[in-house]
Amino acid sequence: MKTFFTLLTGAALLSGCYYDKAEEVYPQLLLNNSCDTAGTISYSTHITVVLQNHCLSCHSTASPSGNVTLDTYAGVQAVAASGQFLGSVEHQAGFSQMPSNNPQLQPCQLTQIRKWVQAGAPNN
Ligand code: HEC
Fold it and tell me: Separation of 11 CA from ligand 1 center, angstroms?
C-alpha cells in the first residue's frame, strides 16, 4: 500500500515537471499567457485572466449562458463551490465541457484553477 502511494506521488510530481518543461521547450506558451502555477493562486491576478480570455464571451452578466455568470466573484464562487467550475474545465463526467466552443484549457491554466478552488476559492 505504501509503495502504491509513493508511486502515485511520484507520478504527480513527474507530470508537474513535464508541464514546467513544456513551457521551457515552447516559449510561445509563455508569451501567449504568462501562466504561472507557483505560490498562491489569486482570483484577481490569475483566475480573472483565464475567464476573460476563454469564458466571458458566453458567461457575462449581460448574457449568462446556462445561468452561469463568470464576470463577478460571486458568480465564480458559486460554480467553484458547486463543483461545476472544475467539473466543466477538467471535462469530468456529468458536466458540460468548457469552454464549449474551443479546445480544453492548457494544463497550466487547469492547475491554477484547481489550486484556487481547492484553496476554497478565496476573493484574493
Ligand atoms: C461558446 C460559449 C461558451 C464558452 C466560451 C464557455 N461556455 Fe460555459 N456554458 C455555455 C453554455 C451554452 C452553457 C449551458 C449549457 C451547457 O451546460 O452546456 C454553459 C455551461 C457552463 C457551466 C455549467 C456546466 C454544468 O455542467 O453544470 C459552467 C460551470 C461553465 N459553463 C463554465 C465555463 C467556463 C469556466 C468557461 C471558460 C473556461 C466557459 N464556460 C466557456 C457556453 C459557453
Answer: 30
pLDDT per residue as tens digits for the range 37-90: 999 999 999 999 999 999 999 999 999 999 999 999 999 999 999 999 999 999
User: Which residue type is seen at 37?
Assistant: T
Nearest to 112 by CA among 24, 51, 55: 51
111 in ligand 1 pocket by Cβ < 6 Å?
no
Q: Is 54 in the pocket of ligand 1 (CB under 6 A)?
A: yes
Question: Which residue's CA is the closest to the ligand 1 atom numbered 18?
Answer: 96
Angle (nearest 5°) at CA 94 between 92 and 100: 70
What's at 122, amino acid-wise?
P
